[in-house]
Write a structure and sequence with these properties.
heterodimer; A: 149 residues; mainly alpha; 2 domains; 5 helices; B: 141 residues; 6 helices; 77% helix; 0% strand; globular
């Protein structure tokens, strides 16, 4: 449980760093060149981590399904959408919208038990927790607004 | 408006990516999932790049080497995200991701790190983060 929460904290921190770094690359290089480069770096880093931790066992993959081959297209969607959003909006504002959408879709898919997820029924206390998080985010966003163009 | 649309779609894709990766990792393993999705994504983007040549001023040589390393974070992001979703579910994972992202982005904004325009940190912003953490605690009850 705590390990899961710590890993989520780590992933979230790296995502915000990556967004900023990617937008810096995008200032000098085109969007598609940025996307290609970012995903290429991600591939090399994953390959290196996989080889370091599993060695030749890395190639012992289980049952591949055809759609697995196309899942990388989601990554293309992520990088291009975020780079475009960061280019048009202030970082805090852009990320606020991204996070609301992320949480909304997460709740929806958890409550449906979509794609083999453990189904987590949507209850009143889940609703309250999520509204609290969105409320906190709006307080955060609005209080920062006066500084922004 | 167009920026906001990109941000919403980006958010949906981010959650979808986590859910799809968790499903794939059950069949082929966690690092294998990261390698597969990054590689197929790279190929798709590369093919598109061949048709849309949008390289502009400066090029890669004009980018600070540190910023070029951003893409490599994906290995840790993907594997951590998969393990977190398996252990605590999508909503809680995304909620904690959210808090970490907002805190770090705001820390970067308020210090003007990485050449980002400096923003002042105000009391309501701490209140906002406190509310978000309270929301996570409520989800966990």
């Amino acid at each position: 449980m705590l390990v899961g929460m710590a890993l989520a904290l780590l992933a979230g921190s790296l995502i915000s760093l990556q967004n900023i770094f990617n937008s810096k690359v995008n200032e000098r290089v085109g969007s598609w060149a940025t996307t290609t480069f970012v995903l290429g770096m991600g591939f090399l880093a994953s390959l290196l981590m996989g080889l370091l931790t599993q060695g030749s066992h890395l190639l012992e993959v289980g049952q591949m399904q055809p759609w697995f081959w196309f899942s990388g297209l989601i990554g293309v969607g992520v990088v291009t959408s975020l780079v475009q959003a960061m280019k048009r909006l202030r970082p805090t504002f852009a990320i606020s919208i991204v996070l609301t959408a992320q949480l909304g879709f997460a709740l929806w898919w958890d409550s449906m038990g979509w794609m083999g997820l453990d189904k987590i029924p949507f209850t009143v206390h889940h609703l309250f927790g999520v509204l609290m998080i969105i409320g906190g985010m709006l307080v955060f966003k609005w209080s920062g607004q006066s500084h922004r163009a | 408006m167009k920026g906001s649309m990109f941000a919403i779609v980006g958010g949906a894709f981010l959650t979808l990516q986590g859910v799809a990766n968790t499903r794939i990792s059950e069949s082929i393993g966690t690092w294998q999932t990261a390698i597969l999705t990054q590689f197929t994504g790279f190929l798709a983007a590369f093919v598109t790049l061949l048709f849309i040549r949008d390289t502009r001023r400066g090029g890669f040589r004009a980018v600070k080497p540190l910023y070029l390393a951003g893409g490599a974070f994906a290995a840790i992001i993907i594997s951590s995200n998969i393990t977190a979703i398996q252990q605590i579910g999508v909503t809680l994972t995304v909620a904690i991701l959210m808090i970490a992202q907002l805190c770090l982005t705001f820390l970067i904004d308020s210090n003007g790190w990485f050449g980002v325009t400096r923003q002042k940190m105000k009391l309501p912003q701490f209140l906002g983060i406190a509310m978000m953490i309270a929301g996570v605690v409520i989800l966990k009850l």
